[in-house]
Amino acid sequence: MKLTTVATSAVLFASSVFAAPLVAKRQAITDVDILQFALTLEHLENVFYKGAISAFPEQMFLDAGFSSEFFNNLKFIVTDEEEHVRLLTEAIAATGASPVAACEYNFPYTDIASFVSLASVLEGVGVSAYLGASPFVADKAILSVAASILVTEAIHVSLQRTSLHQVAAANPYGTGLGINAVFTLAATFIKSCPSTNAALPVMAFPALTATQHGPASAGITFTFSVSGHLPEVFFVTFVSGIFTTSVPGKMMNGMIEATIPDTAMGQTYAFITSENVSTTIMDSMVLFGPAIIEVTPPSPTFDLTIQ
Predict the structure, then answer these.
(1) What secondary structure letter does DSSP report for 68?
(2) Are 178 and 136 in contact (CB under 8 A)?
(3) What does the pLDDT look like over 105-134, one tens digit per residue?
(4) In this structure, what is the dihedral angle of CA atoms 115, 119, 121, 125, given to the nearest 10 degrees?
(5) How far is Cα 204 from Cα 202, in angstroms, rounded to an integer?
């Protein structure tokens, strides 16, 4: 299963799969909220990897073209995610709050290839979540721990991308996402959560679906679809690395068309926005999204005279 196929199935029902107590009334986000949300994501990854490692023995990975080295690294990733759950659980408990428990999930992988493709996407979203939340963390000790986890998640991304024969470092910069955008993506995998879990001050945006499969590239026309009304003037806004680039969207045969900008490289997030955005996307600007697309970076160029 190709990456964009997995990503499409993952975000198709974002606006309909979550319910109380996962979502609370919107309010200011505290450090404990950020820790709880991080634990929600780490629970998801922990269950995701353990489910696959339990269902697929090493031989199945070998038969699918992956190496024993990759399978061994996968076991280290399982250990990492379990440790992240343990650490965050203890950190939240130390504040006097009750740590959220794991939910019930639905992961749309059916074989080794679709599992690894989805793993790459999930790890990329995890990196974007930690990076996007960092400006809102008040306690520098918490920020330091979050940065440490981010580094490990980024290493996971590189491993998964390399195994899929993608460029491991496709973008010179990490891509941050706001908490609501991350929740929109994560909520698609969550069937239900324990009633005792603390409600989170987050909301999901209406879903945006990437309708083309396979890697994209800058300059091509890419298509999306939505279930809902679009204004006469709207933009497809691509978030990739430190760049946010809006391009005019247009409807063609019932599909949204937009040209991928040259600022998009690697795992890229697309939104439908009401405004032309060049800096940070405000929640009030988002009409639909995000959708995840994989954009092949251009051939590397460098200047040997720069020392």
Answers:
(1) H
(2) no
(3) 999 999 999 999 999 999 999 999 999 999
(4) 150
(5) 7
Query: Reduced to 3 states, what is the DSSP secondary structure of residue 304?
Result: coil
Is 14 in contact with 205 (CB distance < 8 Å)? yes
- Cβ neighbour number for residue 222 with a 10 Å cutoff: 25
**CA–CA gap between residue 271 and residue 282 (Å, rounded):** 11
Strands (E), 28-184: 104-105
Greatest pairwise CA separation for the chain in angstroms: 60
| Interval 71-100: pLDDT, tens | 999 999 999 999 999 999 999 999 999 999
Highest mean pLDDT pick, 9-18, 22-31, 190-199, 211-220: 190-199
Pick from 277, 37, 268: nearest CA to 173: 268
5 by Cβ neighbours in 10 Å (0-12 / 13-18 / 19+) ranks as: middle
- Please tell me the distance from the alpha carbon of residue 216 to that of residue 297, in angstroms, as a whole number: 9
Contacts of 164 (CB under 8 A, 6+ apart): 3, 116, 117, 120
User: 247 Cβ partners below 8 Å, 6+ apart?
Assistant: 235, 236, 237, 238, 258, 259, 261
CB 260 within 8 A of CB 222: yes
- Length of the chain in terms of residues written: 307
Please, are residues 78 and 238 in contact by the beta-carbon 8 Å criterion?
no
Beta bridge partners of 294: 267
What pLDDT, in 10s, does the model give residues 31-52? 999 999 999 999 999 999 999 9
For residue 127, the number of C-alpha atoms closer than 13 Å in the C-beta half-sphere is 22
pLDDT at 8 over 90: no
